[in-house]
Amino acid sequence: MNFRRRNRSQPPGFQIIPIIDVILLLLIFFVSTWTYAQWEKQMDITVPTAKETTAPRRMPGEIIINVGKDGEVILNQKKLTTDELRSILTRIAKQFPDQPVILRGDESTAYKAIIRVLDACRQADIWNVAFATKPAEAVAPSPAAAK
Questions:
Q1: In what order do the strands lie in the sheet with 63-67?
Q2: Where are the domains of the chain?
């Protein structure tokens, strides 16, 4: 009989490589979702269409102001009055003079509601304002028009 002692290997120690892999994957996930989360879009706002539109080159830190159908102003998913909006924009304009603002007004919003927001931007000394639109869909000619 062979009563030799078998050479037992020691249990593996703390494995750091798999933990680094998991942390790296989580970091990539959170950075990529953060990028999309900063582009605030209200689901109940339908921006008007425009024939001449281009995909915007997104600027980091741009402010998106949503104006609903009834004229309510929404910034960072919070309803604001015109005075509150002006106060926030004034503080931002002092820190960042060339702050870009995107105004997303619903296509059925009254014109005076849009002008109130533009006035608040102007009073806060924000001049870099863009209007959000969506591209016009290609309209296929009807069979009756082709004849």
A1: 78-80, 73-75, 63-67, 101-105, 129-131
A2: 40-135
pLDDT band at 130 (very low <50, low <70, confident <90, very high): confident
CA 125-130-133 angle, 5° bins: 155
Q: What angle do CA 82, 86, 89 make, to 5 degrees?
A: 135
CB atoms within 10 A of CB 27: 10
* Of the candidates 65, 124, 119, 131, the residue with the CA atom closest to the CA atom of residue 97: 124
Asked whether the beta carbons of 64 and 41 are under 8 A apart, the reply is: yes
Question: Model confidence over 63-76: pLDDT tens digits?
Answer: 889 898 888 998 88
Distance of CA 69 to the CA centre of its chain: 20
Reported as type and span, the H/E element at residue 75 is strand 73-75
- CA 1: distance to chain centroid? 75
Q: What are the residues facing 64 on neighbouring strands?
A: 102
- Indicate yes or no: pTM above 0.85: no
CATH fold of 40-135 reads Nucleotidyltransferase; domain 5 (3.30.420)
CA atoms lying within 13 Å on the CB side of residue 22 = 5
For residues 84 and 70, give the distance between their C-alpha atoms in angstroms, rounded to a whole number.
Answer: 18
